[in-house]
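User: I'm new to structure prediction. If I give you an amino acid sequence, what do you actually give back? Let's try with this one:
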Amino acid sequence: MKKSLPVLLCLHFLALSLVAQDPHFSFAAGNPLGVNPALTGQINNNDWRLSLSHRQQWANLLGRQGAFRTYSAGLEHRFCLPFKGNYLALGLAVVGDERGDLPLQRLDGSLSVAYIKVLDQRSDQVRYLLLGAEAGFITHRLDINDLSFDEQFDHPDLPSEIEGSSTTAVADWGAGVALTFAPTERGDWGFQVGFAAKHLNRPNWSLLGINDGRLGRTINSHFVGHGSFTWMPKKAGVSVQSIYRVQDPHRQLLSNITFLMKPGGGFTFRLGAGYRSARGFEGLRSDAYVFTAGLVYDTFQLTFNYDGGMKTLAGGPQSLELMLNYQFGRSACSKVYCPAF
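Assistant: Good question. You get back a string of structure tokens that encode the predicted 3D arrangement of the chain. For your 341 residues, that looks like this:
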């Protein structure tokens, strides 16, 4: 066990570098609960929204078994308040993250609430103020049974030196605000800006469970600023979106432009490209170029994302994403206009 402790310490600090950044997706509009709790329940023509996402990263470099995998599921529901132009929305989100062959897993669960207020309504545009908050938990689990040490390679018949697992769970909360200028059926343009702050309590966590200040770590606060502009006069249009993330010591900026086409029959096709840059310990660098393709039919939305690496991962996908959104349920106040990302 004494020989194993340095290995565990190295693994612990490796884990710190891996979880320094929250898991996130390149197509932010397909995962609104992961961006800003204020976006909870901003659903047009329906009261419910189900969102499913899966992301596989660096499989070409680490192999299928070693690839990083992130998955999320979200469910939102918007309620009508007695006062006209006022809504309340609730959301439930679960996000899982696995670090390839390393037996380390992260699971986040959160409940969000948002207040939606109509500021002004015209024939071509509706303006909303959205206020949101979220609370939940973050867990990390390390399966020690999956670890191997030098002695086991020399003597394969020897039992595991250590057994069991290490799990830590911490409470977490955040808040956000957004302002939306959404086009009505007579309008052709709109935009949205928002800001969110996550991990405001800076929760402490330690996989080893050792009360040592040198090993204790906090999950850094995560700040997100986002904005979008959409122009769609008739059967075709364009949407521009940017999202800026700050989680010390890292910064990340993702910008993309998406072309929208409505051939009729309830179909909308989306095709776009983007660019992501990042700043961290190595300074400012080009991270990836992003291609997006999507199909919307009635209340179904399917999105595919391809991230290509700019340097060491050039020539292969850095990540692949698949997202599915489904809206359902109608009531007297179902019509809440939203930007057509």
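You can read the tokens as a compact description of the fold. Here is one thing that stands out. The CA atoms of residues 160 and 196 lie 45 Å apart.
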